[in-house]
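Hi, here's the filled form for the chain we discussed.

Project: internal
Contact: R.S.
Residues: 190
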Amino acid sequence: MPDRTDAARAARLATTVLMTAALTACGSSEPAPNDGRSAPQPFGNPTAVSDDVQITAAEGFMKAWMLDPADVKAMCEHQTKAARPNFTDDGGTVEGCVAEGKSLTERTPEPGRAPLRFTVDHVQDVKASRKHPAGKGALATGQRDGSKPFRYALRLVKEDGRWRVEQREDVASRYDHTADPVADVLWSMG
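And the returned structure, exactly as it came back:
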């Protein structure tokens, strides 16, 4: 006949096995089959993958726009059709946008000018405005060594399965110390 100590150990072992199995199932970062996600979401931070994609889209747009000369084709590809300057002419095709932005390709770099660096952060939800759909807002900050930073609030929306820039607003120095107003700037100016 087994003693009480053996029974208690068996009960603790069974409880440990069950808890380990439950925690493993809860903590898995692998998506369930056919749940519609293209990449696993990190456990405990469901927006991290999404924020990275939006930050990458915003950085791609800003770098293409701010190059000397600008990479107009890449810039246009990072914009929504409605945000392209040729939207009323041809529905916002990339080709028409490139033609409209030809002057940006004629900029020449200044000799000895420090390289431009960008950071994009403060990704947040933004409500639809009079002119723009709801999406995500982000703060893009650019700076060259020895100069003051400049900032743009960007509205990103999904179009054709990609995050693209729908709206950009120069926030100048109004928000040097905080990024909380990103959604407010996009709402009030859009």
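Let me know if anything looks off before we file it.
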